[in-house]
Specification:
- With 104 residues, this protein is an alpha+beta fold.
- A three-stranded antiparallel sheet has the order 1-2-3.
C-alpha cells in the first residue's frame, strides 16, 4: 500500500473549472512584450466584421513564454508524426495597427 502524498511525488493537483473547460475559440493571437512580460491576446476575428474583441489574455514571464514555445513545437511535432504535416491556409490580411499597443 502506497501512503505517499501526490505532492511528495512531484505531482500537482490541477482543477479545471467547467466554464474554463468549454474553452474559447481564437483564430488570431496578438503578442506584445516588455522587459519583464509577454502578453498574448487571443482574438476571434470574423470575416467581414471590422471589429474584434480580445477573448482571453495570458501574461507570461519571458522564461515561461520560451517554455510555451518549446512545448508547442514538441506537440506540433508529435501531432504531425501521427496525422501528417499541418499546412498553413490563407493568411488573413491584418493591418499593422490592429490590436492593443504599448508595453505591458
Amino acid at each position: 500500500m502506497n501512503n505517499q502524498n501526490p505532492q511528495q511525488e512531484g505531482q500537482i493537483n490541477i482543477e479545471l473549472d467547467e466554464a474554463i473547460a468549454d474553452g474559447i475559440y481564437s483564430n488570431l493571437a496578438i503578442i506584445n512584450h516588455s522587459t519583464t512580460e509577454f502578453v498574448v491576446d487571443f482574438v476571434n476575428l470574423m470575416p467581414g466584421v471590422p471589429k474584434a474583441k480580445v477573448k482571453s489574455r495570458i501574461i507570461l514571464t519571458p522564461q515561461h513564454a520560451k517554455r510555451l514555445v518549446q512545448a508547442l513545437a514538441e506537440n506540433i511535432h508529435r501531432f504531425e508524426a501521427m496525422h501528417g504535416e499541418i499546412t498553413e491556409g490563407e493568411q488573413p490580411q491584418i493591418p499593422l495597427n490592429f490590436g492593443p499597443t504599448g508595453q505591458a
